[in-house]
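Marked as duplicate of an earlier ticket. Keeping the data here for the record.
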Amino acid sequence: MSYSTGEIAELCGITVRTVQYYDREGLLKPDGLSEGGRRVYGENSLKTMQLICAYKELGLSLAQIKEVLSDEENSRKVLLSVLNERERNLDEEIRQKLSQRESVKVIKQYLAEGKAMPKNSFSDVRIIMKGKTKLRATYAGMLVGGAVADAALIASIVLWAVKGMWLPFAISAPCVVLLVLALVLLAHRNLAYICCECGEKFRPKLAEFFFSAHTPKTRKLTCPHCGKKNFHTETYSD
């Protein structure tokens, strides 16, 4: 089956301009031209566009998408790894919600009978979404720290350029470097990754973590379990 540019765009939930842009960037090429000179795409092109859209949702840049798509089997493994991690998170959320519901029933029963509640009645409430909360806290700390570092550095540069005051820059520059290093150490300590090849969870070495390419949800690392280098899914390190 063949598709026009408009049909590809509609099936993938994007605009015609987006399809044309990906074409110009070399991510998606038409299978041929119609008699009127319009681009025609096949089933493989549709699958490729769907993968491109999926990776854009994961935060990969166009350059990274090109690299991943260069190996079709590899690209599917990365996406499958992300989906598996999401499925695990949903299963855990469901388990915790069911446990919380049972706790609510027990608490309601004790309240109805006028009895004192057991010591561990609220244990499930305390652990619900614990890992996800810590992951969000890590992201928030890095975001705030990065914003502070940027603001301090920009302000010192402006003072130097406008008023010739170089001392604030001389003081803030090394402080910003130390803050960035602290943020990197915080992220390295709190983050782990799910290998898209073998599914094992691991923490990378600091040097590899620092210099690796990354997106908001993945990082290109070498799995210590299977030795495969790829974009692996980010999660919280227990």
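See parent ticket for discussion. The chain has two domains: 5-59, 76-236.
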